[in-house]
Structures are given as structure tokens and as C-alpha cells.
Amino acid sequence: MSLSGAITGWNSQWIKRIECPRGKIYCREKLPLAFDPNFAAAFSFVCQVESSYTGLMQGAEPGTGAVREPQLGGNLLYAGELDEAGRALVVAGNIAGAASLAATANLVAQKQAVRDGVVDFLVTSLDEALRILKNEIRKRETVAVCVGVDPVTVEREMLERGVLPDLLGSCACQAEGTVFLNQGARRVEPFGADENRVLVVWRVTAAPARWLPKLDAIALDCLQLVPGSATGADRRWLRLAPRYLGRMAQGVRLLRCDDQIAARFLEQVREQVESGEIPVAVEIQTSGRGQSHQHRFLPPGNSESAG
User: Fold this and answer.
1) With 0-12 CB in 10 A as exposed, 13-18 as middle and 19+ as buried, what is 274?
2) What is the DSSP letter of 228?
3) What are 223-236's pLDDT values in tens digits?
4) 95 with 234: CB under 8 angstroms?
5) Which of 19, 89, 90, 239 has the fewest Cβ atoms within 10 angstroms?
6) Residue 157 CB-half CA count within 13 A
7) Any idea where the domains of the chain sit in the sequence?
8) 46-48-49 Cα angle (round to 5)
């Protein structure tokens, strides 16, 4: 299922209504949502972030301790130009726990990155950025810094200073990026769809700040069924993506998982909506292997109809 197909499915106007003994479920066809360009843009951006995050985590250190989540603490990620792809990579780096460096001379992009929480610091020189980054890398803490200078200048200064990123985004300039790669940096490529996994997307129709965390907790519980480093990365994504995406996500959540986890998630959400524990309508889309299914779970007493 392509990204454009998924977006179209979420924003179509018609729906097939299925009556079943366990409550009303809207599924298989299309959800009754008027086209929302803001949601479509947010969904596209979240997908970019998730794809970049998956690419980053291919080289992450295995998790230790009680949490046992892989992470990139202590690694320097250079994202290059802070355009749309660069923003997605920096957010993914934040979720993965890296120390991220980006650059842009675009004043609008600088202000937007600070306002959206994409970066923690906006500085005017590489020297300022390195003072912040070195301290956080030593502590293996997450941080994101943007230098308000064009990337070509920043990358040349990095080479002159002997600053070698551990991870390199595709937005880096070609000549300087090649030097970084030859010196041992790992190129981060966005990770494409995995045919063995299902993309699950969910949102609620009201009070997302209250009820989305409840759905996230259900998804986290479902992930406990499958141990392993891949699931650890998924847990980290579910825990931290809402924090670092913030308002940019427009109240949408997504997760790639296997069929068993997706089915269990759907069943538990259905049960909690039907019982009234979650008293708002929940919309979920599952996509994989060329198919897409939409589900709409309604709480007791909800009088919505197919229209």
C-alpha cells in the first residue's frame, strides 16, 4: 500500500458499515472523513519520520537494563539541510536518542524548527554547536542543534576541524558527504515498507490529548507479546514519537508490526470502546501486502451512521 493510497483511504467520504454482535464496526472500505489537507500533510510527515527512524535503528546499540530498548545515545547524526527531509531525520534522531546537527540559512525554516520543537538550540556558528553537542554526547543524552548557516559552509568547517559524524543523512552535500563516508560515517537511508509487517495507523475523533495515550498504552502492551530488539525499537517509537512529533503529528499515531500484534491491538481497542472505557470513536487503518482495511469503533450510545 503506497503512502498516497493510505492517505486517500483515510480521507474518502464513503464507508461500508458492518453490523456485528460485538458492536458497530466500520471497516474494509473507506472512512467517512472529509478531505483534510492538514491531516494529509501531517500523516505524510509522520511516515517520513518513521521511515528515517527505522533506517537509523538498523545500526543502534542493543538495549540494556530493564527497558531493553536499542538507542543511539553517544552518536552524532549530521542531517544536513533542515528542509522537510532534514526535519524528519532530526525528529527521528531525537526519538532514537542521537545528538543531531543540522544547518540552514533559511530564516523561516530556523524559526519553524524552534517553534515545532524539532531542534533544541539555534546557534550562529559550528563552534557554538560543538560545545553543546560534545557535552551531550559525553552524557549520551538526546539533543538537536541547528546552525544558522548554509550546509556547505558548515560541512567544510566540519572537515577542517576534523568533526566526523557517526551517522550521515542523505541531505549532506555530495562532495563533503563522500569524505565523511570514506572516513567511516554510516549513511542513513529511509527504510521502505516491510512486506512482512503491517502498518497500523490510529486516531480518535475527540479529546486526543486524553485518549491517544490510552491507545498507545494498549499498543505497548501488545508489543510485549514479541520479545526481541525489533520490538524494542518499536516500543521506543511508541513511547517517544508523541513527545518529539508533538503538534506536527496532528493527532495521528502509526506503528509497523506483525499480523498477530495488529490483530490483538484491534481486538483490545474494540473491547475497550465497546465497554465505554474509551468513550470516543476510534479510527484505525491497517495496511500491508497490497491491502488496506479501515475500522471505526463506536462507544455505546453513539448514534453515528454511515450517512
Assistant:
1) middle
2) S
3) 887 766 568 899 99
4) no
5) 19
6) 14
7) 3-35+193-297, 64-187
8) 65
Rounded Cα–Cα distance for residues 275 and 192 (Å): 37
d(CA 282, CA 206) in angstroms, rounded, equals 9
Instruction: Name the grid cell of 11.
Output: 480521507
Each residue of 101-142: pLDDT tens digit?
A: 999 999 999 999 999 999 999 999 999 999 999 999 999 999
Q: Which of 5, 81, 82 is nearest to 40 (CA)?
A: 5
Residue 83: all three cell numbers together: 528542509
Question: 64-187, which class in CATH?
Answer: alpha beta
The b-or-e profile of 217-256 (16+ CB within 10 A means b, else e) is ebbeebbeeeeeebbbbbbbbbebbbebbeebbbbbbbbb
pTM metric for this prediction = 0.85
| pLDDT at site 110 | 97
